[in-house]
Specification:
heterodimer, A: 341 residues, alpha/beta, Rossmann fold, 6-stranded mixed beta sheet, 4-stranded antiparallel beta sheet, 39% helix, B: 259 residues, mainly alpha, transmembrane (chain B), Transport permease protein (chain B)
Chain lengths: 341, 259
C-alpha cells in the first residue's frame, strides 16, 4: 500500500528527472558568478548592508545542495535571489537557464519554495491551502484535487485534509508546507532552514520525506545551520560566512580537507582549562588544538592515542570523548567560530 | 504565460476564499456599525433637531445626515479594508510573501487585493444605500449614483492606505491612523452638520480634506441638489487621490515584496 503511493509519487513528481536522464547531459540548474546583494539603508541614519558579497557557485540537476553558515551569513539572501523574489545588486545569476530579472514569472513557475515560517493560512483548511496555492500557478481545480490527495498522502496528512491549519502541530505544518510547495511539480525545491524549531522526532520524519524527494530526483537546495542536517541531506555544500563562500565540496571532502578524521573533546574542571591547554600545547606540536569556552578540541588522526597522551602527561579531564570529525569542525577550522552562537 | 489580468484574478481568489470564512466578523464593523449610526443619530437625534432646520438647507436631519454617514463609513471601510490586511499580510508568515514565491508579480498581488477591497467597499455601500432608501432618506433618484460616489471615496482612502501599509514592519501605526486621521475627518467633514456652521477660518481646511469632497458629492446626489461643475471637482479630487495612491502602491509593493 505505502509502496504504491510512493511509486505514484515518484511517477508524478519526477517527469523532469526522467527527462534529464533521457537527454543525458549535465544540466545546470543555477549558476551564479560574482553575485552580490546589498540592502539600502533602512532610514537616513542607517548604512547599506552587504548580505552577499560576490559569490560563485554552480548547481546541477539531481544534486542536493546546501548553504551552511551561521545566522547572518547571507544564506537566506542567496535563497531569495534564486527564488526570484530579490533582484541581485550585481553579478550574474541564471536559474533554469533564465534571467531572474526578466523571467521571474517563468522561473518561479518551476520552483517550489518552503519558507522558514511556513506561511500557511491558519484560518483555512489544509486542502484550501493547497487549493489556493495551486490556483496561484494557474492549475485547474481538478488537477489540484488529484495532486492534493497524493501530496497529503506523501506528507502523512491524508486524514487531515478538512482540518483547519490551526489544529496541526509544528511538524505537520512543516510537512504541509512541503506538500504545498510540490503542487506545481517543481524541478527545484528551495528549503530555508527546513527543520528549525522542530523537535527531534519531527525532524527525522521530515528528513525521511526530503530524502524520498531527493531519491525521486527533485533537486533540493537548502539552508541550514545544523551540521547533522547538512550531512543527511546534501551531496554538496557551500560554507558561507559574512557574505562570502569560505569552502565548498561534499560533506566528506570538506571534512577531509579542513579537519582530521577524529576529534578528542576534553572538558576540565572550572579554572583548570588554561593550565591544561598550556601543557597540551607542549605535548602536541603537530596537531591542531581548538579552545572553546567550555571545552578543548584536539584534532587528531587517532583519538584514543591522543587520549593516552593526555593521561601520560598527567592531565585529569572531567570528561573525555573521542568522536568522528563533523562539519561543525570544518566550520570552526574555517572561521574560528562555532555555528550556533 | 497567462496575462497580467488573469494573474490578478488568481490573487483575488485568495481573498474570496478567505472571505468565505471571515465575512461574519466584517458585517458588524462595515455594515451594522454605520447603520446603527444612521438610526441612532439620523432618526433619534434628527427628531430633536426637527424638520427644515435652516442650516441644513431646508431638509430634515435624516435626509441631510444619511449621505454624510454613507461617505464617512466608506472612508472608514476603505482604510479598514486596506491598512490592516496589507500590514498583516506583507510580512513573514503573511499571504503576500507566499504569493510572491509563485508566478505572481508584486503588481498582480496588488491588483488582486485592490479588486477585493473594491468589492468589499461596494458591497458595504450598496447595503447602506438600500437601507437609506428604505428609510425614506433619499430625495432624488440620483441617490443611485451615491453608490459609485461612495466607492470612489472609499478607494481614495484605500489606495494610499495600502501604499503606506505595505511599508510597515509593525501593525501599531495603523491604530494611530484611526485616532488621528479617521476620527477627526469623520467628525468635521460635514458628516453630522453643515460645514457652513463652522467658523469661517476653519472652513477652507475642511474643504481641503478628501472626506468633505466625498460627503458633499454623496449628499448633493441624494438630495438632488447636485451642481455638476462642483461634482466634477469632487470626482477629480478623489480620482487624483486614487491615482497617486495607486502609483505609490505599485512602486512600494515591488520595493517591499521583491526586496
Amino acid at each position: 500500500m505505502a509502496i504504491e503511493y510512493f511509486r505514484a509519487g515518484v511517477k508524478f513528481l519526477l517527469h523532469s528527472a526522467r527527462f534529464s536522464t533521457i537527454i543525458a547531459m549535465p544540466d545546470v540548474l543555477v549558476e551564479a558568478a560574482g553575485l552580490v546583494k546589498r540592502y539600502p539603508p533602512r532610514d537616513r541614519h542607517g548604512t547599506a548592508f552587504t548580505a552577499v558579497d560576490g559569490i560563485d557557485f554552480v548547481l546541477r540537476r539531481g544534486e542536493s545542495f546546501g548553504f551552511l553558515g551561521p545566522n547572518g551569513a547571507g544564506k537566506s539572501s542567496t535563497m531569495r535571489m534564486i527564488a526570484c523574489v530579490s533582484p541581485p545588486t550585481s553579478g550574474t545569476l541564471r536559474v533554469l537557464g533564465m534571467d531572474p530579472l526578466t523571467q521571474g514569472r517563468e522561473i518561479r513557475a518551476r520552483l517550489g519554495v518552503v519558507p522558514q515560517d511556513d506561511a500557511l493560512d491558519r484560518d483555512l483548511t489544509v486542502l484550501e491551502n493547497l487549493l489556493i496555492y495551486g490556483r496561484y500557478f494557474g492549475l485547474p481545480k481538478a488537477t489540484i484535487a488529484t495532486r492534493s490527495a497524493r501530496l497529503l498522502e506523501f506528507a502523512q496528512l491524508a486524514e487531515r485534509g478538512g482540518e483547519r491549519v490551526d489544529a496541526l502541530s509544528g511538524g505537520m505544518r512543516r510537512r504541509l508546507t512541503i506538500a504545498r510547495s510540490l503542487i506545481n511539480e517543481p524541478e527545484i525545491l528551495l528549503l530555508d532552514e527546513p527543520t528549525t524549531g522542530l523537535d527531534p522526532q519531527a525532524r527525522h520524519v521530515l528528513w525521511d520525506r526530503l530524502f524520498r524527494l531527493k531519491q525521486q530526483g527533485v533537486s533540493l537546495i537548502l539552508t541550514t545551520h545544523y551540521m547533522d542536517e547538512a550531512e543527511q541531506l546534501c551531496d554538496r555544500l557551500v560554507v558561507m560566512d559574512k557574505g562570502h563562500i569560505v569552502a565548498q565540496g561534499s560533506p566528506a571532502e570538506l571534512i577531509a580537507a579542513h579537519s582530521t578524521k577524529e576529534v578528542l573533546e576534553l572538558r576540565f574542571e572550572i579554572g583548570e582549562q588554561d593550565k591544561a591547554v598550556a601543557k597540551l600545547r607542549d605535548a602536541t606540536i603537530r596537531d591542531r588544538l581548538e579552545e572553546l569556552p567550555d571545552r578543548v578540541l584536539w584534532y587528531t588522526a587517532e583519538g584514543e592515542a591522543a587520549l593516552a597522551v593526555v593521561h601520560q602527561i598527567g592531565l585529569r579531564p572531567a570528561t573525555a570523548m573521542v568522536r568522528r570529525a563533523s562539519l561543525e569542525d570544518v566550520f570552526l577550522a574555517l572561521t574560528g567560530r562555532t555555528l550556533v552562537d | 504565460m497567462a496575462t497580467a489580468d488573469a494573474m490578478a484574478l488568481r490573487a483575488f481568489q485568495y481573498w474570496i476564499l478567505r472571505y468565505r470564512r471571515t465575512w461574519r466578523g466584517t458585517v458588524v464593523i462595515s455594515i451594522a456599525n454605520p447603520l446603527l449610526f444612521l438610526v441612532a443619530i439620523g432618526v433619534g437625534l434628527g427628531r430633536l433637531v426637527g424638520p427644515d432646520a435652516a442650516a441644513l438647507g431646508g431638509v430634515d436631519y435624516l435626509a441631510f445626515f444619511a449621505p454624510g454617514i454613507l461617505a464617512a463609513a466608506a472612508m472608514q471601510n476603505g482604510i479598514i479594508e486596506a491598512a490592516f490586511p496589507v500590514a498583516v499580510n506583507r510580512g513573514p508568515g503573511g499571504a503576500y510573501p507566499v504569493a510572491a514565491g509563485t508566478p505572481l508579480e508584486p503588481e498582480d498581488i496588488l491588483h488582486g487585493h485592490l479588486l477585493f477591497m473594491a468589492s468589499r467597499v461596494v458591497l458595504s455601500a450598496a447595503v447602506f444605500v438600500a437601507v437609506m432608501v428604505a428609510f425614506g432618506a433619499a430625495r432624488s433618484p440620483l441617490v443611485l449614483l451615491t453608490l459609485p460616489a461612495a466607492a470612489l471615496t472609499a478607494m481614495a482612502f484605500a489606495l494610499p492606505s495600502a501604499a503606506w501599509a505595505v511599508t510597515l514592519t509593525d501593525i501599531r501605526p495603523v491604530n494611530g491612523i484611526f485616532k488621528w486621521v479617521v476620527m477627526p475627518l469623520y467628525l468635521f467633514s460635514g458628516t453630522f452638520f453643515a460645514v457652513e456652521q463652522l467658523p469661517a477660518v476653519v472652513r477652507p481646511i475642511v474643504y481641503a480634506t478628501p472626506l468633505w469632497h466625498g460627503v458633499d458629492l454623496c449628499r448633493s446626489l441624494s438630495l438632488g441638489t447636485v451642481s455638476w461643475p462642483l461634482a466634477l471637482v469632487h470626482i477629480g479630487y478623489l480620482t487624483c487621490l486614487c491615482g497617486l495612491g495607486y502609483l505609490m502602491a505599485r512602486r512600494l509593493y515591488r520595493r517591499h515584496l521583491h526586496a
